[in-house]
Amino acid sequence: MRSDHATGMPSAVQPRAEVYRAPRQDKPWGHERVFAAVEGKYVGKVIHVNAGHSLSLQYHREKEETISLLSGEAVVQFGPADGELTELTFRPGDTIHLPAGVVHRVTAVTDIVFAEASTAGPGWREDVVRLQDAYGRTGTSAP
Question: N or C: which end of the chain has fewer CB within 10 A?
Fold first, then answer.
């Protein structure tokens, strides 16, 4: 096997960058862009929620998420599945880590943008249990 003289690495195993446009997926509350999705490793999203709209009250069976508000003002509710929810006002820079099983919902007071990083185990796209949803998706994993 030949090696690359600049890096010393075998030329057959050199990593290659991938450049692409993150796809936009419209949602009833706004839209999201999945900018990173490496199956079995991680997912990165940028999520836009229109003022007055909410994501589902939901939890995940396996997936962990960390969300960080980039712009706007939101109300974040979170807590145990069988308990009372805590409600906090989030402003840019406020961040929350949500282990699997924690019930949560984000409501946009103003138009908001937040970043979400999560685990990406098998079936991560369907790993949502909706408890309440203003858009008719309760109990489903539909986007």
Answer: N
Task: Establish if 3 belongs to a structural domain.
Answer: no
Strands 112-119 and 42-49 turn out to be antiparallel
H/E stretch holding 39 reads none
Quick check: helix, strand or coil at residue 11?
helix
49, 111 contact by CB (below 8 A): yes
Among 108, 53, 99, 49, CA closest to 78 = 99
Which residues are CB-neighbours of 62 under 8 A, at least 6 positions away?
Answer: 100, 119, 121, 123, 124, 127
Residue 39 covered by a domain = yes
pLDDT for 44-98, tens place per residue?
Answer: 999 999 999 999 999 999 999 999 999 999 999 999 988 899 999 999 999 999 9
The CATH number of the domain holding residue 123 is 2.60.120.10
In the structure, what pLDDT confidence band is assigned to residue 10 with cuts at 50, 70 and 90? low
Percent of the chain with pLDDT over 90: 76
Residue 105 lies in a domain: yes
| Residue 33 counted as domain residue | yes
Count the domains in the chain: 1
